[in-house]
Design brief:
Blueprint: H1 2-14, H2 20-33, E1 41-43, H3 50-60, E2 64-70, E3 75-79, E4 92-93, E5 97-102, E6 120-125, H4 136-142
Parallel strand pairs: 1-2
Antiparallel strand pairs: 2-3, 3-4, 5-6
Helix pairs in contact: 1-3
Amino acid sequence: MKGIAAKTANLNRNATYTHGCYDNLVFKKMKALLGGRVKCMITGSAPIDLEVLNFLKVNFCVPVLEGYGLTETSGGTSITNVNDPVAGHVGGPLEMCKFRLRDVPEMNYKHTNKPYPEGELQIKGANVTAGYYKRPEENAKAFDE
């Protein structure tokens, strides 16, 4: 469809989710499926396929943010910025979290690797569980080493 192609081109070029002509002719029906007042959508759990992500942005005319979290962090730890035009990542840490990469030499994962640092992601913050049942000290010490 021409509308999807035009809006996808705009999305890739300048991160805009709307198109004056196609939104009124075609995509207002898609927005209406969600009630017509949605301003933003958030996805989490597993990484979303880039094509699916862009399809949602184009069809519902809103930014779709990607988040990352774990059971051990009581939910979210990072989320993309609504103004970030680059898709396919989960953004930076939320205010209550600190992130760091710990080297894993046996896998050649080092925070000094170029162009992309690698390592075990460690998270510290008020939202992180104090530890596991009958092993509370393991989680607390790992970040401070």
